[in-house]
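P.,

For your records, the input lines for the assembly:
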Amino acid sequence: MFLINCPYCGERDQQEFKAGGEAHIERPKQPTELSDDEWAEYLFMRKNIKGVQFERWNHAHGCRKWFNMVRDTSNDEIKAIYKMGEKPPSQ
Amino acid sequence: MKNRYSIFSLIKNALSYHENWQRAWKDPAPKKEYDAVIVGGGGHGLATAYYLAKKHNMNNIAVVEKGWIGGGNTGRNTTIIRSNYLWDASAGLYDHALKIWEGLSQELNYNVMFSQRGVMNLAHNLQDVRDLKRRTHANRLNGIDAVYLSTEEVKKFCPIINTSPDIRYPVLGGTLQRRAGTARHDAVAWGYARGADAMGVDIIQNCEVKGIKRNGDSVEGIETTKGFIRTKKVGVVAAGHSSVIANMAGLRLPLESKPLQALVSEPVKPIIDTVVMSNAVHAYVSQSDKGELVIGAGTDDYVSYTQKGSHQIVEGTLNAILELYPIFSRMRMLRQWGGIVDICPDASPILSKTSIKGLYFNCGWGTGGFKATPGSGDLFAHTIANDEPHKLNAAFNLNRFVSGDLVDEHGAAAVAH
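Structure tokens returned:
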């Protein structure tokens, strides 16, 4: 449980948000040409990092907008929050 | 040679004030090389080592554990054991484990306090009723005992449940697996550790894996905080930290690690003599032999390795518990904790070879791994020793995420684990 600074609404309780998993997984540009291995990689395989991880979050019980977050999963500390489409901050 | 535990050994040791019990397992320094190393000294890892030594004559093996054995999810779960899964593959896997549980205390000469007190799953809406009836039929076709209960039969089996029709989530029925129940989680780890140690397995605690050394596509050994250990076979049984180990080997797994919470109350006299689980309201409860109510909550939906979960998850579970069991309204909770569970997209485990020769993973048990401990160890040992899965864990390979042949228990299991 922690506070999240929604880029649209400001600081709110984490329970208003829905975690959307790993960020910056790009949808394949040519889906018809993908092998089964590549599909598995895209659909299922995750970094699941213990440490600093890039994630998508949705303010489900607020503005309902998606945004990105950089969070340390070993202590739940939020390092940065940035809007969809923006470049992730460099580490 | 291990002394056997018996009534006579108890009397003998009582005479010397219990000060001369033999060590249950040694505390060795790691050797330079082993035939196989198991990463993770929880129940599953220790069981794997035990069956590798017992059934496959692999005695020159080690279990490395970063903390103390049984200190991870083995010591944090709510100890529920059942095998009433929907799909054939799961039914085979979990019932294999349940059958081993039934003789485990005798086999290990260690009382794991396995208690077949039954597990009841409640239905709270029409879809639950349909799902649970379907599952009952599927279980019986797979030779797993299951009965469907009406609301009155639920009440008769567990009288403290509130079956009033005007509660928020009324009890419309339920299923009962009588062979299911609970066991003492620490004893399972300790019993397997003692059994494995007696057959020559080195159990190395406070030894964290820092890297996996590869030579091309095969494993050469592991880097640990106690030095390099050479081995051709590494079995990773690291639960919530499986991805961390996989990343060391340059492997990606379809896992997300999330905190799962549980809590226990102050101890009281016997009040509930079975295990009751409720999927729709996500609450499950049983009573330990010490008298504490053991209550399981749900997972948070974000990845975290913090071993603590959000307060609202516990609050939601306790709301549901209080509505179903008004008699608990004045109970005080004693302890609350979290464990990190590794969840697969299909909520089924992975017991599998990998693309790296000699590297095996036993993970993805998510929120329901304890029940499978003996079966998981047995089948994973088979997989490591033969470099081939047993027929019971063949479906739980890593390749299912490529082929699409998932074992989709997520929506179909008795509870959202």
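Two observations worth noting. The interface with chain B takes residues 1, 14-15, 18-19, 21, 36-37, 39-41, 43-50, 53, 55, 57, 73-76 of chain A (CB under 8 Å). Helices of chain A lie at 36-43.

Regards
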